[in-house]
Amino acid sequence: MTTLTTQLGGCHCQAVRFEADLPSALEVEDCNCSICAMSGNLHVIVPSSRFRLLSGEEQLGRYRFNTGNAQHLFCKHCGIKSFYIPRSNPDGVAVTWRCLDNWMSLEATVTPFDGQNWEANAGKLAHKSKI
After folding, report:
1. For the chain, how far is it from start to end, CA to CA, in angstroms?
2. CB-CB contact of 59 with 76 (8 Å)
3. Which of 80, 85, 128, 131 lies 20 to 30 Å from 1 when distance is taken between CA atoms?
4. pLDDT (tens digit per residue) in 97-129
5. Could you state, in order of their start, the residue ranges of all structural domains in the chain?
6. How far apart are CA 110 and CA 96, in angstroms?
7. Using CA atoms, how far apart are residues 49 and 71, in angstroms rounded to an integer?
8. Percent of the chain with pLDDT over 70
9. What fold is seen in the domain 4-129?
10. Numbers of helices and strands, H then E, in the chain
11. Cα–Cα distance for residue pair 109/73, rounded to 1 Å
């Protein structure tokens, strides 16, 4: 069984704060879809039961495009997307790795994900939001 530790994180201005229960060794997705590539987002997908928004819900803006299934949430003040609900895992949360307070001290493997060909590859992520 994987040991989980609670990691704190949030946006740049600290208006949005969250915690997520993460394994000691993270697999971080480096997606090449249009929004992840343009924003440089590297994320860790977790089951929604392992994510808790601590503060700032009212500070979140929402952006949807294409199918409208993904919910890209960002701080209305500083513009940072510290987490979002991914299209591939609507029952999970994609936490932005570098928005974790201690991201540099966490053991992480960055794995490329071909989001430009999302339909052919999304199934490879489905297990990440399961408990």
Report:
1. 11
2. yes
3. 85
4. 999 999 999 999 999 999 999 889 989 998 999
5. 4-129
6. 12
7. 17
8. 99
9. 2.170.150
10. 2, 10
11. 24
